[in-house]
Design a protein that fits this description.
The complex is a heterodimer of chains A (115) and B (113). With 115 residues, chain A is an all-beta fold. In chain A, 0% of the residues lie in helices and 56% in strands. In chain A, strands 2, 4, 5, 6, 9, 10 and 11 form a 7-stranded mixed beta sheet that branches. The radius of gyration of chain A is 13 Å and the shape is globular. The termini of chain A are far apart. The radius of gyration of chain B is 14 Å and the shape is globular. Helix content of chain B is 0%, strand content 58%. In chain B, a hairpin with a 2-residue loop joins strand 6 and strand 7. Chain B is mostly beta strands and 113 residues long. Classes of the chains: A mainly beta (115), B mainly beta (113).
């Protein structure tokens, strides 16, 4: 395992529901990320947090709301989602902001289905 | 616009055979290039990372090459095993503000017995 855990692993929700995805990293990293992976499309960066501060919001709809209470935990709050939001949501962490030589470590993902 | 294109989209090979996956990118200014392996239902796991000055790097049966002049990279898998069945993702980083990563669409490899 990579030291990044995500819960739940699978989630089915209706369009009127409110749910949250949780990510926890045990690696002592300072940066955390949310990605969306849809079928046959490249990973899409959604949000980036560095030392608990949001540094990137990649034009994500407001029905997705991130929260980073500390450097080890990251949440993605979901409400009034659309069927096209069904995807694999991946959390990742790195020692510092990636792009330099800092490796990103990914969690196993949450498979979300919106009905 | 920064882009990473991978080919082929999918590939089927027999166990024990070799294969080569391709990655072309237009990311600029270039910082580094990574290859990830993603098993079905799992998160990506890093295989190699190469900077501008490196043109080859190996990790067991995986060997990545980088030609920064032509902006191409390849991942060569030797003596394939059933466990190599996965998606292989090429990721390129630009050395500008934010240092964010640009992901390719991946190559889906299936190794058959």
């Amino acid at each position: 395992e990579t030291g990044v855990t995500q819960t739940p692993r699978h989630l089915v929700m209706g369009m009127t529901n409110k749910k949250s995805l949780k990510c926890e990293q045990h690696l002592g990293h300072n940066a955390m990320y949310w990605y969306k992976q849809s079928a046959k499309k490249p990973l899409e960066l959604m949000f980036v947090y560095n030392f608990k501060e949001q540094t990137e919001n990649n034009s994500v709809p407001s029905r997705f709301s991130p929260e980073c209470p500390n450097s080890s935990h990251l949440f993605l709050h979901l409400h009034t989602l659309q069927p096209e939001d069904s995807a694999l949501y991946l959390c990742a962490s790195s020692q510092a902001l990636a792009g330099g030589l800092y490796e990103q470590y990914f969690g196993p993902g949450t498979r979300l289905t919106v009905t | 616009k920064n882009q990473v294109e991978q080919s082929p989209q999918s590939l089927i090979i027999l166990e024990g055979k070799n294969c080569t996956l391709q990655c072309n990118y237009t990311v600029s200014p270039f910082s580094n290039l990574r290859w990830y392996k993603q098993d079905t239902g799992r998160g990506p796991v890093s295989l190699t990372i190469m900077t501008f000055s490196e043109n080859t790097k190996s990790n067991g049966r995986y060997t990545a090459t980088l030609d920064a002049d032509t902006k191409q990279s390849s991942l060569h898998i030797t003596a394939s095993q059933l466990s190599d069945s996965a998606s292989y993702i090429c990721v390129v980083s630009a050395s500008n503000a934010g240092n964010m990563l640009t992901f390719g669409g991946g190559t889906r490899l299936m190794v058959k017995p």
